[in-house]
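Z., the sequence and structure:
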Amino acid sequence: MYSKVLVAIDGSPTSDAALDEAIKLAKEQGSTLRLVHVVDEGPAYLNADTPFQLDEYERALHKAGERILEKALARVGAEGLQAETKLIQIVTINEHAADELVAEAQRWPANLIVIGTHGRRGLRRLLLGSVAEGVIRSANQPVLLIRAS
């Protein structure tokens, strides 16, 4: 039984599908959900000639992350469930979303991680990377991958 389920949320349709699956699982097993969104500020620091103020950019990313979590929390609530939310900020290029999700799953501690995957292959996967793949490689608990159709 999965009593504590961490759900990675990024606001994409794939993430929404993962949330739907986590909601079903929580209803069936009486699980507690923790919705986690990772804000990655690192790429903004790669270019010193940014045409915007970094503090404004950081605030915008943080606000967008909060909205994504609020929307996901509302979906959970509409299904008669409750959940906790957690916003994690990455501020250096040495930190990675996958590592932060796995670390949060350990701290909480989750019995299961639910995450959406876009199913990228080839060059797109090489260029864009995969948070889901990084989670699978380093998580100690089971990971449920959900691929949106």
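The CA atoms of residues 69 and 93 lie 23 Å apart. Residues 124-128 have pLDDT under 50 and may be disordered.

Let me know what you think.
H.
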